[in-house]
Amino acid sequence: MLQLKVINSLLFKAFLICVFFIYYQTKFLPGSLHSWIMLLGIVFMLPATYEKSANGQIKVSQDFFWVLLLAVIIIFGYVINIATATFSNFQAYIMMLITYVYVKHNSDEQTLVFINRLVRWFLLINGILIILQTLTGSYFPARYLASGNPPLEIASGVSDGATKNGFLVAFSLSMMLASLFFKQLKFSFFDFLIFIIGLISLVLSASRAGMLSFGAVVLFGSLFSIIQSLRDKRYRLSQFFILFFIIIAFGGFFIISYLNLNFEMLYEIRDSETGNYGLNVMIYKASNLVDGSIEERFYGFLFFKKLIVESPLHLFSVGYGAGSFETLNGLNIHNSWFELLITTGLFGFVIFIALLVSVTFKAFKQQDSIKYTPIFFALLSVMVFMFAHDVLRGRIFWLGLGIISGVTAISQKKKTAKLMQQGVN
Fold first, then answer.
1. Which of 95, 99, 117, 97 is nearest to 107 (CA)?
2. Which of 373, 316, 360, 374 is CA-nearest to residue 341?
3. Among 203, 375, 392, 419, which one is least packed by beta carbons within 10 Å?
4. In the beta sheet, which residues pair with residue 25?
5. Are 385 and 167 in contact (CB under 8 A)?
6. What is the DSSP string of 241-271?
7. CB 154 within 8 A of CB 205
8. Could you give the 3-state DSSP secondary structure of residue 304?
9. Where are the beta strands (DSSP E) in 293-364?
C-alpha cells in the first residue's frame, strides 16, 4: 500500500506539471496528457478506496454531495437532449468533476508548497519563451507536441495559443500576487524578478481576457489585503506591497507616454524578415475595443436570450444538455458562466455556486486561512476569465478548488483529532 501511495504522489505531481506545461491535446495521444495521467492515477487510487469502503471509513462530504448532484443533472441533461447534445462536451463536463475529486483526494499541505514552486517555474520558463517568440517568431514547443498543427504566430510560451497562455499566466501571477502582498507568505527578490517577467509575458501574449482577469485580481486583492491587514494581525502587508504599485504606476505612465500603445520599439528590435503578425495582433487588440471576437460573443449572448424566451422550461429543469448551444447556434458562447447555466439549467448553476461557497467558507474558517489566499486569488482570476472563454470544462479551475478543499479537509481532521486527544487527556 505504501508503494501505491508513492506512485499516486508521483502521478499527481506529473498531472499538475502537465496542466501548466502541456495543457493541450498532443500528437501522441487521442486527448490531453494530463487527462490520461489523471485517469491512471484514479486506477492506482482504487485499492485504497476499496479498502476504506470495506472498513466503512468513507463518508460522502458536503462538497462531494454537490458534485454528485451536478453529475446527475449533467447526465440527465445529456440523455434528454440527446438530439442536440454532443458526447465530446458531455465527456468534458464529467471530466471536470472527476478532476475535482481526484485533486481533492491527493492534495495535502505539501501540495500547496509544490504548486507555489510550480507556478514560479512556469512563469519563468514560459515568460522567457514568450519574449523570445515575440522577438523572433520562433521557439514554440507546441509546434512539436500539439495536435492540429496550430499556426502559433502569436507568442504563447509553452501553450498552443493565446487563450490557454492567458489564463495560465493570470492564474500563476495571481498566486504570486498574494505571496507578494502578505508578509507571512514567502516571497523573495528572485520571486519578484519572476513576477516581473510574468507581467511582461502577459502583456506580450495578446490575451485581453488574461490581462483583464489579472487586473481584477489586483483590484480585489489590494482591497482584500488592506482590509484584512487592518482587522487581522495574521495578514500583515509585506514590503513588496507598496513597491508593486509604484512599478505598476510608473510602468503604466511609461507605456501611455512613450510607447503610446503602438509597440514601435518592438518593431525596431524584431527583424522584419521574420514577419510581424503577432505584433500586428497585439496592436490591433490594443487599439480596437470592439472586433470580430467581441461581436461573436455579443451575438452568442443574443442567441442565449432567444433560447430562454423560446423554451424557458429547459432553464428550470436540467438545462439544454452539454454541447447543445454549439449545435443550435453553430458557435460557442465563449462564456463559462452562461454555458454552465445553459448546459445544466438553473438548478445546476445554483449547485455549482453552492459548491464554490461551501469550499470557500470552510477554508476561511481555518485558523491558518492565510495559506489559502494564493489559490483563492488564482481562482478569482479564472472566474473572471470565465466571462470571456469556456474554460470551466477544463482542468485549471477544478485544480485550484480541489487543492483548497483537500487541504481544508486534512486540516479539519487534524483539528478534530487534536480535540479528541485533549478530551481524552
1. 99
2. 316
3. 419
4. 32
5. yes
6. HHHHHHHHHHHHHHIIIIITTS-HHHHHHS-
7. yes
8. helix
9. none
How many residues are recorded in the chain? 425
Per-residue pLDDT of the chain (425 residues; tens, 9 = 90+): 567 788 889 999 999 999 999 999 988 888 899 999 999 999 888 877 767 666 666 677 889 999 999 999 999 999 999 998 999 999 999 999 999 999 999 999 999 999 999 999 999 999 999 999 888 888 999 998 998 777 787 889 999 988 899 999 999 999 999 999 998 888 888 998 999 999 999 988 878 889 999 999 999 999 998 898 888 888 888 877 777 777 766 666 555 554 454 445 444 544 444 455 555 555 555 555 555 566 666 677 777 777 777 777 778 888 888 988 888 877 778 889 989 999 999 999 999 999 999 999 999 888 888 999 999 999 999 999 999 888 999 999 999 999 999 999 888 887 766 666 666 55
Locus of grid cell 506529473: 14
Give me the torsion for CA of 283, 286, 288, 290, rounded to 10°: 130
* Residues 281 and 263: beta-carbon distance below 8 Å: no
Closest listed residue to residue 235, CA positions, set 114, 371, 408? 371
174 contacts 377 by C-beta, under 8 angstroms: yes
Residue 366 zone, left/alpha/beta (φ > 0; ψ -120 to 50; rest) = beta
b (16+ CB within 10 A) / e for 390-409? bbbbbbbbbbbbbbbbbbbb
**Pick from 375, 359, 12: nearest CA to 185:** 375
